[in-house]
Amino acid sequence: LILHLDGIEKGLVIQRADGTSLYTTRDLAYHRWKSERCDRMIDVLGKDHELVSQQLRKALLLLGVKAPEFVIFEFVSLPSGSLSTRAGRYISADELMEKIEARAYEEVEKRRRDLSEDKKREIARMVGIGALRYDMVKVSPEKHIVFNLEDALDIEKKGAPFIQYAHARAASILRMATDRGFKIDSADANVALLRDKSEVELIKKLAMFEYVMESAASELKLHKVARYARELAEVFNIFYKNCPVLNAEEELREARLVLVDCTKQVLCEVLSVLGIEAPEEM
User: Fold this and answer.
1) Residue 163 sits in a domain of what CATH number?
2) I want to staple 160 with a disulfide (CB 3.0 to 4.6 A). Which of 134, 142, 207, 213 is the partner?
3) Is 79 a domain residue?
């Protein structure tokens, strides 16, 4: 049984000659069931399923069922060339994660010999998996991705490690403030003192968080969240460079500590949206 759909050259096979169903048949039934139980239905597929998504949408509309929204991700390749299971050029996701975590561990081992082995492994896992996740969503889904392991882990490339480091830096400032007995209280801090250009720019960037989240969700553009995370880390680093926190005069220090605390919270939230952990130290 084949369903011919307007505008699609290839027919959609609904049932085999022996009466058995296909994956697409079950997919139609599943989407009909799902559409009755949700306000918004989103399918995330690879480029090789683009035809299936078109067939599915038209078939569901013929059945009077609400069709899902589709996010189609382009193919991913390595610097050595495109991946192809048929040609034997591929790497499994598990293997890639193992490689990038091992490479991240090498960097942590080199930079933080003071940490315990368990802590180094924990940070390497956070940074490695974070780097992989970030590089997969930092560009719009319709763009082809070339994943370079070294670039993904390079903090100068401003990927996930760069953003995670900004979070760890904020956490470090707050820990040192607590150790020195400094107060961190947004209710009492005189934030009107935050008038330096770097402070104002950071406050403006923090204020964009809700808008960016709503925009990315409504348009199904996750790369907007990734870009915002990077920009926030950049602005925070400029603030850190230009505005002393712990050594500032008491009233100004309290205001800047509140700003650092707000930045740490937003960085943690935006990383969480991307499925990336926010380390307290790196």
Assistant:
1) 1.10.730.10
2) 134
3) no
Give pLDDT tens digits for 224-254. Answer: 999 999 999 999 999 999 999 999 999 999 9
Look up the domain containing 22 and give its range.
2-73
Partners of 78 in beta bridges: 81
Q: Using the Cα atoms of residue 146, residue 148, residue 149 and residue 153 in order, give the sign of their dihedral.
A: negative
- At which residue do the structure tokens 């500590």 appear? 257
CA pair distance 108, 127, nearest whole angstrom = 9
Using DSSP's 3-state secondary structure scheme, residue 233 falls into: helix
Enter the pTM of the model. 0.86
Residue 232 structure tokens: 């926030």
Q: Please provide residue 50's backbone torsions phi and psi, each rounded to the nearest 5 degrees.
A: -65, -40
Are 29 and 106 within one domain? no
List C-alpha distances in Å: 110 to 26, 107, 120, 260. 52, 5, 10, 28
Task: Supply φ then ψ for residue 44, to 5 degrees.
Answer: -110, 115
Identify whether 11 is part of a domain: yes
Split into its structural domains, the chain has a count of 2
State the CATH number of the domain containing residue 33.
3.40.50.620
- Each residue's pLDDT tens digit, 173-221: 999 999 999 999 988 999 999 999 999 999 999 999 999 999 999 999 9
DSSP 162: H
Say how far residue 143 (Cα) sits from the centre of its chain: 16
What are 45's two structure tokens? 């597929």
Whole-number Å distance between alpha carbons of 144 and 139: 9
Whether 159 contacts 132, CB under 8 Å:
no
